[in-house]
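Below is how a single chain appears once it has passed through the pipeline. First comes the sequence as given, then the structure the pipeline wrote out for it. We keep one example in the README because the format questions we get most often are answered faster by looking than by reading.
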Amino acid sequence: MVRKKALLLIVIIAALVLMTYQGKKGKLESLTSLDTLLHATQNVVSSATGSFMRPFRTMTLREEENIRLRNRIAELLLEQSAQQEAVLENKRLKDLLKLRETHRTSVASARVISRGIGYWEHTLVLDKGLEDGVGKDMTVITPLGLAGKIISVAKSYATMLLISDINFSAAVRTRESRLEGVVSGAGSRNCILKYMPYEDEVKPGDVIVTSGLDAFFSQGIPVGYVSKVDTKGIGGNFQYIEISPFQDAAKIEEVLIIR
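Resulting structure:
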């Protein structure tokens, strides 16, 4: 009887142990399946998110590359512009040096550092002054021709009056026919050739040079060419003649100052 009870107890304990083991195994299998499902879901979500975001990342990278390329192009354009400017400046300085070699009365070559601010004030400020030998009423020229004259001088800079200023005048003559007159500024691109009688034949294209008769400008400096002649309906004793200066006042950057 005791044996039967002991045997029955052992069978019951073994059954409980087996049931407990199978229950745990089922739970572990269930947990393992759930964990696998979660990992799979996470992988699908990550893959989908990556596929969705990939075009945006590509667009961002392309935009960054475009910005970098645009900045590089701008740098190259600036470098090219600086090189072209250096070439042009070198040519201007060479021309100015040649001009200085042909004028024994040259005092100094100068660079324009500012312009007059008034509407009717056609003046330039140069970077040479008294300490460079520059004096008032000296002539200012360029490789193209007459540019103006010095009207005031300081220690290290000077102010020049352009031939386009209404207060400027110079004694001139036509180079071929040797007809004499006075060229004056008109406050614009062209100048006016004054005091040419109707009987004097002046034609468009005639070259005008300084005559040296005013004690300010030496003889033979190119001034410009006749661009307009009007002998009808003007009145008075003289023709109306416009002169286009060889040197455009708006394009002056370097000049030569001569006595």
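Residues 2-102 form the longest helix (101 residues).

See the next section for the split statistics.
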